[in-house]
Design goal:
Elements: E1 86-88, H1 103-133, H2 135-143, H3 145-164, H4 166-170, H5 174-194, H6 199-222, H7 231-254, H8 258-284, E2 289-291, H9 296-319
Antiparallel strand pairs: 1-2
Amino acid sequence: MSSYPPAYDDPNKPLYPQGGNYPPPPPYGFPSYGGPQPNAPYPPGPNAHMFPGPGGSFPGQPHASGMPPMPPMPPVMPHTIPEDVLESGHDDGFAASGGFDTVSLRHTFIRKVYMILAAQLLVTTSIVAVFTFVEPVRRFVQENQALYWASYAVYFVIHMVLVCCTGPRRKHPWNFILLSIFTLALSYMTGTISSFYSTKAVFLALGITALVCISVTVFCFQTKVDFTKCRGLFCVLGIVMFVTSIISVIVLSFKYIYWLHMLYAAIGAIVFTMFLAYDTQMLIGNRKYSIGPDEYIFGALSIYVDVIQIFLFLLQIIGSSNR
């Protein structure tokens, strides 16, 4: 018997020692002690909610198509300014009635509107931060879409009341109560949509929205271009945007089309940037038309909706790279 070990090509060479108390060989070379098993799922990482698992599903939210779940996209509200809100201006650019004959009163009115707007944006930013960073809350709002649509119903009803009804919009304290409920409803909707995107996309959208809004506001205070003369154009833009949003939401609900989604989001961001300029000049009052002295609730409501819509459309564009 040869004392040399068998050659590698020897067909009679035993692959493993025979006899004794040796454990059986592990399949495919994987150890059998607490290590990863073949075809075993890996533990989810911190960003597991952004990537599909086996079969295209997500943790806590089954999805069999292999694509990330689409965040809800309700149709936007038509941009409407009722006639009882408007006032015609003097030739010198200031309102002719309602105690707005002096610049100081107009500045007081503007400060009041922007203080209300700052409080609204602070509430919305806080809710978006909670829905984005707190993982249990993030999963809860994603898995309970009924609450989202309930908040959309509240948003729709109160928006109609504040726009169409003069009494609730001007009577204190009901105007602040309705505006507070409206702000909470739209903030919940914004936070829910933001929860479907990465924190990087949310931060970028917030930063770009802030730059756009500041730039538009400074431009409106400095320019001599009067957007308020184009009321018919902005009315048509509002109707077109409303119809386009309904069509896009219906189509994307049945089949996700990337280019259609991006086109819709780009058009929405541009149109609401124009609405922001239009509403800001209505607030300033040194143009052909302006909003009346008692309409600080409507002024804050209009600009707030413009800012939120710009943020949501930018978030859809920026966050598409993560889908």
